[in-house]
Amino acid sequence: MHKPRPRPSRVLAAHWVLVTSLPAAALAGESGEAATVATVQFNAQFLKRSDGSMVDVSRFANGNPVSPGDYPVDIYLNGAWIARETVRFRPQDTGVAPCMDGAVIARLNLDEQALPSTSRNAIARAIRGQCTQPSAISEDIGWSFNLNDLRLDLSIAQALLRRTPRGSVSPELLDDGVPSATVAYNLNTFHTTGHGAGTFTYLGLDAGLNIGPWHLRQRSSMSWQSVGKDSYNYQNIATYVQRDISAWRSQLTLGDAYTDGAVFDSFSVRGANLASDDRMLPDSSRGYAPLVRGVARSNARVTVTQNGNKLYETTVAPGPFEIRDLYATGYGGNLLVTVTEADGSQSSFTVPYASVVQLLRPGITRYSAAAGEYRTGSSIRNRREKLVQGTVQHGFNNLVTGYAGLVLSEGYQAGLLGAAFNLPVGAFALDATHARAMIPGFEDSSGQSVRISYSKFVPTTSTNMTIAAYRYATRGFWTMRDAFAARSSGGNARAVDRQRSQIQLTLNQGLGDRWGSLYLTGTSAEYLNRRGTALMFQVGYSNAANLLGLPMTYNIAASRQRELLTARFSTQVFASLTVPLGKGSHAPMLSFSGTHNSGSESSQQMRLSGTALEDNAVTYGLNVDRMPHATTGGGNVQYRTPYTTVSASVSGGSRYTQYSGGLQGALVAHAGGVTLANYLGDTIGIVEAKGASGARVANAPGVRIDAFGYAIVPYLQPYNMNTIELNPKGLPLDVSLDATSVQVAPRANAAVKITFAALTGRSAIVSATLPNGKPLPFGATVSDDKQADIGVVGQSGIIFARGIEQAGQLQVTWGTDNSQRCTIAYELPPRDKNATTYAQVRAVCQPQPDTEAKA
Fold first, then answer.
1. 837 and 778 fall within a common domain
2. pTM score > 0.85 for this model?
């Protein structure tokens, strides 16, 4: 009676243990070079075959059993991915070791001044193309190689590396992208009956062309409406050419652009704009965070915490130390720095940390320069104002950031000078602007404006307060926007509203984990040409609780507003409650809300919304609204396909009906053809995976490889490492990927190409025996007609063979003698694209012609 054959999953498990677990055990806990791993002696009694012979595992005795050759590998330095390169592994005394060529050396960020002359000579040899092993450069460079993941880990002591901020991306890794053309579209048509009946259609277009480092963008919209008389309108929103200038950490824009608004108010200009781009900074250098300085008496551990949360920890050498690469944490909160010496003793000190938008890190400079024509959204303009604007900000130290700006035009000039301060009592920004305006029909006027901003977080009470900002202007002061509007008013300059003062207040108060949070916002504004004060404030409370075991959220808010023209106050109260109808991932959400205003009018709303299908491809909503004089109801649905998003809505009441439909998506033209997408964003990835149709991009919901082998990944982060992963689930059984994860660092607005090689070939489970009916020896090596290793023999003589031809021969070897080899001739059944199991073959392994197989 034959023993039952194991399931394929057990065969694969046996293969995995033999090939990967044993060398991993040999290298466990090692950070040094593989050649330095002590020889491992395996107890062959645990791997004895049924005939009493032993499985040959000698190749596992000296670390990782890598065959010499070239391997495309992901290189990690101290746990962080740095590059994908083809690395050559060459034999050495006790195995193989990777060659450190010039391409790999360039990625390591080695501080050559910290290396001895012998190490520098080894680096020079590597750059010249000679195979240089890690130990030749320094004994402090360790390595390990995971053959299954094609991952090469390098471990290098921090003392041998140049100091770079966390999150830095090497300039060599930045990708300019490939030539491409894109069109993103948003089409919506809306039809209503009843009062104001008609059809309204809108089409928004965002087109782009990438050639080398230059990026052309054109945004426009078209609208049609049939209400009484048909009408059509076209608007050119923006057209510009842009490229980055890495050496200056800047973006150059020719055409339509917006200024950044960091110093002066933001506006649109048509001309040339050169401005620094903070996205080119490492993650840990963006936003404001203070520089931490201290002194250590020994090799010490430095820990930085904020409100009990650990932000940073590192080891420093004896003497003064600096920490420049803290990540920004929003509104701030003082930092507690703890220094733990080698003998266990501790000391600590506090670094003030509060932030306003004008604050920069010490040593960071931000600038902008624009020259061109001022643009407004108005389609009627009598004057084409030409102007030049320049701004600069610089972080001098932890306490002070200075900033200044200048605007020059024919009818308006202004200069601004200010400073921002990080103090224990909070963060302040104070600036003053002097402006001179020439308005037709007015005498030339000049005046000043003062602005102050304040921000403070109080951790003991969880209070975050921002007064942003108080502004006061003298009667002769004109902002640039107001001055240009007055100059284009045709003699009606007095109708331009000019603000005298403004106060904005935002307060957020946490009440603890159980009691929710409270917020207050308010604004007050006075105008030079109008009496009275425009006032608006809102107070609100939100919290969460459990209702029958389901999480419930509720909000209550009240607002009060005083209109400037009528001087009347109006009050509105709003309340809402939201609860899920179930605990599943697609459980719909039911919400109730109500509004009551000072006119004694009330309205109530009920909403049901949810998602369906994989990746939440379908979103839907139903609503019923009760208003003082009518009750209405409706619904909406949106379906996101891999190629476009389709939406529709319908609603109705006693006096009207409405329905609409929409399409949103994009087309990307590249060297491989035209690929459809849902969304783009400024920076995209073009994934090429020929033969992998249907594979999902794991970190881009709804994105799949199309029938032509391409997919578009939207919203990549420029100047950052982006990980693109393919999920092979759903691929045909005969298709595999050489890698399922790739990292790229695109430049802004680039379309980078990301290639995954799909390996096609038949896969099968081969059940083979020797001529005497006994199973093949466990652990025997299996190779194909091209002498390429394709696996090993598992339990009961079963082989999982991947990437083989439709028919051919497999060579099985379990020793050095010719008698310890045999050949399997096979022919697979016809290919079935819809198959859900691997092809299975039964065969006899025939001995070599001049020998007899021995059991």
1. yes
2. no
